[in-house]
Amino acid sequence: MIPISSRQDTPGPMARTVTDTAIMLTVMSGTDPLDQATDRVATHAVNYVDHLRTEALRGKRLGYPSQTPEGVAMNDDPEFQKVKNSLQSAGATLVPIDAPSIDSTPEFLVLLHDFKRELNAYLETRPGLGVSTLDEIIAFNTASPGVHAYDQDLLIESSNASVDQEDYLSIATNVRNAHRQLIDGLLQQHSLDALIDWSEYSFKSTGAIAGYPGITVPVGLDDKGLPKGLYFLSTAWDEAKLLSYAYALEQALAASATLSRSGISQEG
């Protein structure tokens, strides 16, 4: 997995169940001399499996955006209502919130800068690929048959992006801090334990840009038959808490499915 930007992408384990995810994250967590972001992991070492409890959502307050980015009310979404009922049956209180928007222009500039620099650094460690830089990838795609199947606009834009190093560091720091302040502010303002959203929106990627933990739980299929997931987000070092909430939802959904197969209705 190659992140577009190490400042904005937060890859983690993908597994069949939340329990498997917790096992994997427990094993994977640790410091890496090549990854400065892991410097403080040792002081937050956790066995995440120990935190998985079916009652983890009891008494918790979860904030969700009152509208999707397209302006559709979340409460008008029947699929969200089903998930909402499951969360409430597990003991959670759902709180609609209005999240302020953040100008995405500086964040996009950081992404373009990071992608070129970090992809080139990655390619240096993979000799024999036939390409060693972003520019060579662009040239290869241009010269290869079927090039029109590829949209290279972002690759070219990244290649052409230029920003002074001092300005870049200032912009990148400001971007991360703005998104951290947004998340922490919402949690504090509404006395929330976590934020939730559909995974395809993920609070407009605020968590990834902030460098905060998040987890997605599969909750069913959309009207096109594609997987749909609920995304949990919180502040720094809240992985154990988010895993416990995800586990509680997973168990609530499984219980609801069992009741449905048995022909027993469940009030939300």
TrEMBL record:
Residues 2-196 form the Amidase domain. Transmembrane segments: none annotated. It comes from the Bacteria. This is Amidase protein. Signal peptide: none annotated. InterPro entries: Amidase_dom (IPR023631), AS_sf (IPR036928). The lineage of its organism: Bacteria, Pseudomonadati, Pseudomonadota, Gammaproteobacteria, Pseudomonadales. Pfam families: Amidase.
